[in-house]
Write a structure and sequence with these properties.
Strand order of the largest sheet: 1-2-3-4
Order of helices and strands: EHEEEH
Shape: elongated
Low-confidence stretches: none
Strand content: 25-35%
Structural class: alpha+beta
Number of helices: 2
Mean pLDDT: 87
Oligomer: single chain
């Protein structure tokens, strides 16, 4: 899977870059149809932001964003939000694959 890490108004350390790659690998295990991912770090005043965009097959784009006092906590928050979306999407996909319940037959037919 292709991964892009970028920063706006800040510099990203190598340690944070490695952490972001590890997060993307964990999320990719939940989404077998993931094609590419983008992680964007930003700073606005005292607030650090991280956004993870995961593009999956079928033109689906899932986005998880987080804010915190540092980029690591913002990245963790974004991961948690995106993980919730992936789990929910997987559950919906599994429910859609199940066959509908059998209709009960009436005794007069």
């Amino acid at each position: 899977m292709r991964t892009t890490i970028s920063a706006r108004h800040c510099e990203v350390s190598d340690v944070l870059r490695e952490r972001a790659l590890a997060v993307i690998e964990r999320l990719a295990q939940l989404s077998p149809h993931a094609l590419d991912a983008t992680v964007v770090f930003d700073v606005g005043g005292p607030v650090h932001r991280a956004e993870i965009r995961l593009h999956a097959r079928g033109r689906k784009l899932l986005v998880g964003a987080g804010e915190g006092t540092d980029h690591r906590s913002a990245l963790d928050q974004a991961e948690a939000r995106l993980r919730g979306q992936l789990v929910k999407a997987d559950h919906a996909r599994r429910q859609a694959r199940r066959s509908p319940p059998a209709r009960p037959t009436s005794p007069g037919t």
